[in-house]
Amino acid sequence: MDSGMLAANASPYDRLVQALALIPISYYLFAALFIFLAFLYTFLEIHFLHDLLTLFRGYPVTLTYNSSSHLCQSLLSNCNILRGRYSVTPWLSGPHLQTVFLSVFGRAPPVTYRRHLFLTSDGGTIALDWLTYSDVTEGRSRVIDDSAAIKRDKTPIMIVIPGLTSDSSSAYAKHLAFNMARNGWNVVVSNHRGLGGVSLTSDCFYNAGYTEDLRKLIDHIHCEYPEAPLFAVGASIGANILVKYLGEDGTNTPLVGAAAICSPWDLLICDRFINRKPVQKMYDRALTVGLKGISLSCLVLQTGKALQSPDLLETLTSMLLVFLESLRLWIHFIGVQAVLIM
């Protein structure tokens, strides 16, 4: 730098500004881009550099199981993937990138369910969406047939319990149902109350600790198809409901086997985790928006009933219960530390 270009009587700050002005603008743009990419790399929890330094060898699979269980030993001996390493797609080296990619580019298989409506004792309605091998191969269903031959069918039945705001239309539920049906299973997706395009018909909603709907549903399917082995798969909060049900009923359950996928084993820890960083709070917000939509639709339904019902007190009470349930859900999922006493 030519010092003669700087005024001799200028203050140190003026000299600094004049010196910075001599730096080409492209350098500033490059520095800003570098800072932005570094921020994005940290914000999205990308681990590409770590994978690159480890030559993309992947991560060892950590298993927690009962070593004395013959079932676990059999699974380990037959599932090579459990003894391998987890390798991430290089250009999707981050959990949030994978989530966004699946949401934008994920394609669910063509699935046409056969719907049954299961009515609970308190007036609730649960949509059961069935898919069979004949549905994915021939486009017709055998499950809805009421003949005695079908009732004695020994084809395994898999019950799918979706996540918090998911239903049978979710991509992962369709993939699971389609692949199992293609392999000769009968699959039924149990939509939570108020989901699957079915309005809430009672004052009771679903939550992670309420297992009565699943219990009645499993007993119902077992009664309808007594010779068919029953299995269940739960995802996210559906896995939590399934595991809690298994713990409550133990060996009294008709289920032959069950699998829990991404179960939030400790809801308090999961709530803290989903609020630990700004990017996690985006998921929290998305879940809240979904729950608000469900709650508002149920509230609108109850409001419509109130306008047509002669018993105003009863309908207003019903509306209040739905409103309080909606409020309780909103308080929990927006992370407000409050207790609603009901």
UniProtKB/TrEMBL annotation:
Full protein name: Serine aminopeptidase S33 domain-containing protein
Superkingdom of source: Eukaryota
Pfam family, one: Hydrolase_4
InterPro entries xref list: AB_hydrolase_4_sf (IPR050960), AB_hydrolase_fold (IPR029058), ABHD4 (IPR012020), Hydrolase_4 (IPR022742)
Matching SUPFAM superfamilies: alpha/beta-Hydrolases
All residue ranges annotated as the Serine aminopeptidase S33 domain in the record: 157-264
Source organism per UniProt: Gossypium darwinii
Keyword line: Membrane, Transmembrane, Transmembrane helix
GO molecular function annotations of the record: monoacylglycerol lipase activity; short-chain carboxylesterase activity
Transmembrane residue ranges: 20-44
Family indicated by similarity: Belongs to the AB hydrolase superfamily. AB hydrolase 4 family.
